[in-house]
Automatic annotation (TrEMBL):
Family: Belongs to the protein kinase superfamily. ADCK protein kinase family.
Keywords: Kinase, Transferase
Biological classification of the source: Eukaryota, Viridiplantae, Streptophyta, Embryophyta, Tracheophyta
Coiled-coil annotated spans: none
Tagged with keyword Endoplasmic reticulum: no
Protein name: Tyrosine-protein kinase
Claim: Transferase is one of the keywords in the record: yes
Length: 705
C-alpha cells in the first residue's frame, strides 16, 4: 500500500488505492500527522548506507559555487576544480586501481587453482558490487554492454542486468527532502499518496510512485542521487586524461578525447531533469503516435534540475518477455528516430523499454538522447545500400562522407580491404547480416587504415548495438540490420531528397544499363517493412498475393512512388520499343537477304531492353524465374543472339497474353483510393506518349544517319 499523506490542513485524506506496481511488496498505509510521518519515513529509508555513498562519499564535498559551475559539461571548469583538489584525484585513482586490481588478481588466482568455473558466479557478483561502489560513470559503461547476450557470459549478464534499475537506493528521507527543496513545497502539498520505498533505483536516481494532489494522476517521481555530479565529473576528468595518453601512445587517428567529451556531454544533459522533460515532450510529439508505441506525458512545470515528474507507465521489461512483434515495433521506432527525424534514444537498455500490459512498447527514460544530422542520415542510408549490394568502392566513399575515413585515404586499398572484410558477411543475405559481426570484422581494418570514430557515431552505434542485444535475448538469430533494411529500402524508394534520388539512380543504372535485379531486391525488401501485428506474426508463412499487389500499387500510384514509377514507365517504353523491333526483325529474317538486314535493326541496347521487359513483366506478375538474372549477361554470336531474341519475344508475348495474371491486379483496383485509381487510368496514355516519342526519335535518327 502507498503512504497516504494528509492534506496540508492535516485533515484525513480519503483512502484511494494506487494501482500497484506488480513487483512491489510490503507496502504499509500511512495516515499520520507530519511529525509522525517524518519518523516513519526515517524508518522506511533507514538501514545501511548505500554502497556508492559509503565507498565514494568523499567525492561529494564540493562547495555550492563549484556544484553550480558543473550544471553543464565544461572540461575546463572540471579541470580547474580538481586541480585544486589533487589529493581527491589521487585517492580516486588509488580506489579504482586497487578495486579492479584486487578483482583481476582473484580471477588470476582462480585460473591458477583451476577453479574459474566454480567461482564464475561469485566473481560476476563481485564485479557488479565494484561497479556500484565506483558509481554512475562505471555503471553507465556496464549498462551499455549488459544487453549483449551474444557477447557477455550468462552469469555476468545476469549480474550486470541488475544495474539497470536495481541498484541499492539511497535514503527515502534524503529523497523527500530533495523533492521539497527543489519544488519549494511540502511533500503533502504536492502528492496525496506516495510509495514509502523507491520502485526502482538506477545509477543517477531512484523512482517513486505517487499521486498528484491537485489533478489526481498517478505519476513517477524521479529523484537524483546525491553526489552523482561530482563523481561523474572526476571520473570523466580521469578518463579524458587516460584517453589522451592512449591516443598518443597508440598513434590512433580517432580523437578519443572527443569521444569521451560526447559521452560526457550526454551524461551531463541526462543529469539535468529539465532537459530530460523537454526531450520526453519532443519524443512524444515525434513518435508517440506510432503504432503500439507509448510515450509518457511529462509534467514540465513541476520538474526541476534534480526532480522529474512524469506519467506512470505499468509494464514488464522488454527483455523479460519474448514478444517478437514489439521487437519489430522497436526496430521501426528506431528507424524513425535515426533516419527520419534524427532525434534518437541513445540509451535504450532493457530498463528503459517496457512491454505494457496491453501489449505496447513503452519508452520511459529520455535523459540520453542524440541528434543525427540530415547529411549523415543520408550517408548512413547510402552506406547500407552499398553494403547490401556489395558496392565496396562506393562504400569507401560513404565512409569518407560519414567522417570515418580521412579524404586522403588510399581509396583503392580501402575498397579491397572492405571487400575482404564484408564479402562473406553479405554473402549470407541481408536478413542474416549481424551488426555485431560487422563491427567485429571491421576492427583490424579500422586500425590498419587509421579509421576515425566521430563523436556522434559512438552514440549511434551504441543505440543499434543495444537494440540488437535486447532482440537477441528473445531470438538468438535476430539481426537488427536485416530488420531495419526493409525500412531503409522503403525510404530510398519513396524519399524526395535529391541526394537519395541520385543514389537510387546510381544504384539502378550502371553505364546506362538498367539493373532490374536491384529494383526487385528493393521492392521485395520494402514489402517486409510492416508494423501491423497480424502481418508481422505471419510474415514467415508468406504474404497473401492480394495484399502484396495492393501494397505495390498503393506505393507506385502515390506521389512518393512517382520517381520509381517514372523509371518503370521509361524502361517499359524502351522494352516495348525493343519488342516491336524484335517482331519486325523476325519478319525481316524470313525475307530474302533478311540476314543482311537483321543486324541493322536490333542493337545490343535493344536486345538488353527486350530482356529487361521480360524480367519486368515477370516481376510485376510475380513469375520471376531464378535463371532469368543470368540471361542478360550472355555473350553469344549473331545466330545465337537471334535465337535468344526469339526466345525472349516468345516469353514476353506469353506473359502479355496471360489473362490470369492480370485478374488479381484488376480485383484490387476498386479498393485503391480515388486519386490512385485516377493515376492508374493515366498510365496507358503516359506509357503511349513515351513509346511514341522513342519510336519517333529512333526513326529520325536512322533517317539522318
Amino acid at each position: 500500500m502507498p503512504i497516504l499523506l494528509p492534506s496540508p490542513s492535516l485533515s484525513p485524506f480519503p483512502a484511494k488505492n494506487l494501482p500497484q506496481p506488480r513487483n512491489l511488496r510490503h507496502r504499509l498505509p500511512l495516515l499520520l500527522p507530519r511529525s509522525r510521518r517524518r519518523c516513519f519515513l526515517r524508518r522506511a529509508g533507514s538501514g545501511d548506507v548505500d554502497a556508492f555513498t559509503q565507498k565514494s562519499g568523499y567525492l561529494f564535498e564540493l562547495s555550492v559555487s563549484e556544484a553550480d559551475s558543473l550544471s553543464e559539461y565544461d572540461i575546463s571548469k572540471i579541470a580547474a576544480i580538481f586541480k585544486r583538489r589533487p589529493f581527491v584525484v589521487v585517492r580516486r585513482l588509488l580506489q579504482i586501481a586497487t578495486t579492479f586490481g584486487k578483482w583481476f588478481a582473484l580471477r588470476y588466482v582462480d585460473s591458477l587453482m583451476e577453479r574459474s568455473d566454480q567461482m564464475f558466479e561469485v566473481r560476476a557478483s563481485e564485479l557488479r558490487k565494484i561497479l556500484v561502489e565506483l558509481g554512475p560513470a562505471y555503471i553507465k559503461i556496464a549498462q551499455a554492454i549488459s544487453s549483449r547476450a551474444d557477447l557477455i557470459p550468462p552469469s555476468y549478464l545476469d549480474e550486470l542486468s541488475l544495474l539497470q534499475d536495481r541498484i541499492s537506493p539511497f535514503s527515502t528521507e534524503v529523497a523527500i527532502n530533495r523533492i521539497e527543496e527543489e519544488l519549494g513545497l511540502q511533500i503533502d502539498e504536492i502528492f496525496s499518496e506516495i510509495s514509502p520505498e523507491p520502485v526502482a533505483a538506477a545509477s543517477l536516481g531512484q523512482v517513486y510512485q505517487a499521486r498528484l494532489r491537485r489533478k489526481g494522476q498517478v505519476v513517477a517521481v524521479k529523484v537524483q542521487r546525491p553526489g552523482v555530479q561530482a563523481a561523474i565529473s572526476l571520473d570523466i576528468f580521469i578518463l579524458r586524461f587516460l584517453a589522451g595518453l592512449i591516443k598518443r601512445a597508440r598513434k590512433l587517428n580517432t580523437d578519443l578525447q572527443a569521444v569521451v567529451d560526447e559521452w560526457a556531454s550526454s551524461l551531463f544533459r541526462e543529469m539535468d531533469y529539465r532537459q530530460e522533460a523537454q526531450n520526453g515532450v519532443k519524443f512524444r510529439q515525434l513518435y508517440g503516435s506510432l503504432p503500439d508505441v507509448v510515450v509518457p506525458e511529462m509534467y514540465v512545470g513541476q520538474t526541476t534540475r534534480q526532480v522529474l515528474i512524469m506519467e506512470w507507465v505499468e509494464g514488464q521489461k522488454l527483455s523479460e518477455v519474448k514478444d517478437l512483434y514489439l521487437i519489430e515495433v522497436g526496430v521501426y521506432c528506431s528507424f524513425n528516430q535515426l533516419l527520419e527525424y534524427g532525434f534518437y534514444h541513445a540509451d535504450p537498455h532493457p530498463g528503459n523499454l517496457l512491454r505494457t500490459y496491453d501489449g505496447k512498447l513503452a519508452y520511459i527514460d529520455f535523459g540520453m538522447m542524440g541528434v543525427f544530422k540530415q547529411e549523415l542520415r543520408d550517408g548512413f542510408i547510402e552506406a547500407c545500400l552499398h553494403l547490401v549490394n556489395r558496392d565496396f568502392d562506393a562504400l569507401a566513399k560513404d565512409f569518407v562522407t560519414l567522417g570515418l575515413l580521412p579524404p586522403t585515404a588510399n581509396r583503392e586499398a580501402v575498397t579491397k580491404a572492405l571487400t575482404d572484410v564484408f564479402q562473406n558477411a553479405v554473402a549470407k543475405g541481408v536478413r542474416n547480416i549481424s551488426f555485431g559481426d560487422l563491427l567485429g570484422n571491421l576492427g583490424i581494418t579500422m586500425y590498419e587504415f587509421k579509421f576515425r570514430i566521430p563523436s556522434y557515431f559512438s552514440l549511434v552505434i551504441r543505440s543499434l548495438a543495444v537494440l540488437e542485444g535486447i532482440a537477441i535475448s528473445s531470438n538468438p538469430d535476430y539481426k537488427v540490420l536485416g530488420s531495419t533494411y526493409p525500412w531503409i529500402a522503403r525510404k530510398v524508394l519513396t524519399d524526395s531528397s535529391p541526394k537519395l534520388k541520385s543514389s537510387l539512380q546510381s544504384l539502378l543504372y550502371k553505364e546506362g544499363v538498367f539493373r532490374i535485379d536491384r529494383l526487385e531486391s528493393l521492392l521485395t525488401e520494402s514489402l517486409r517493412a510492416r508494423t501491423d501485428k497480424a502481418l508481422v506474426q505471419k510474415q514467415d508463412e508468406g504474404a497473401n498475393s492480394r495484399v502484396v499487389i495492393k501494397q505495390v500499387l498503393s506505393f507506385m500510384l502515390t506521389e512518393k512512388g512517382s520517381f520509381v514509377r517514372d523509371i518503370l514507365l521509361q524502361e517499359l517504353a524502351k522494352g516495348l520499343d525493343a519488342l516491336g523491333l524484335a517482331l519486325s526483325s523476325e519478319a525481316t529474317a524470313r525475307l530474302p537477304f533478311g540476314d543482311s538486314l537483321l543486324s541493322s535493326k536490333m542493337t545490343e541496347e535493344d536486345k538488353t531492353n527486350l530482356r529487361t521487359l521480360h524480367r519486368l513483366l515477370a516481376l510485376l506478375s510475380r513469375l520471376q524465374e531464378t535463371g532469368n538474372s543470368s540471361r542478360g549477361d550472355r555473350r553469344v554470336g549473331p545466330h545465337k543472339n537471334q535465337e535468344t531474341n526469339l526466345e525472349d519475344v516468345s516469353l514476353v508475348l506469353n506473359q502479355l497474353a496471360s489473362v490470369e495474371e492480370v485478374l488479381p491486379i484488376l480485383s484490387v483496383i476498386p479498393e485503391l483510393p480515388p486519386e490512385s485509381q485516377q493515376e492508374l487510368l493515366n498510365l496507358p496514355a503516359d506509357l503511349s506518349g513515351r513509346l511514341i516519342s522513342r519510336v519517333a526519335a529512333r526513326t529520325i535518327r536512322r533517317m539522318t544517319l
